[in-house]
Amino acid sequence: MTRRPTHTHHLASNGMFENYASRAVLRMFVRWGAASFLVLGLISFASVAL
User: How far apart are alpha carbons 6 and 12 in whole angstroms?
Assistant: First the structure.
C-alpha cells in the first residue's frame, strides 16, 4: 500500500473557506486598527487639552 498525500484533498476542499477566513481576519485587523487609531487620537487630544 502506497501512502497518498492526504493534505492535497484537504487544501482543495478548504480553499474557499481559507480564503473567506483570511478575508475575515483582514477585515477584523482593519477594524481593530481603526479603533486603536481613534483611541490613540482621543488620548493624545486629551493629554494636550488637559
Answer: 10
Query: Residue 11: which residues within 8 A CB-CB, separation 6 or more?
Result: 18
**What pLDDT, in 10s, does the model give residues 38-48?**
999 999 999 99
Distance CA 26, CA 20 (A): 10
pTM: 0.47
User: What residues have CB less than 8 Å from 18, skipping those under 6 apart?
Assistant: 11
Closest CA to 29 of 19, 17, 37, 18: 37
pLDDT per residue over 16-38, tens digit each? 778 888 999 999 999 999 999 99
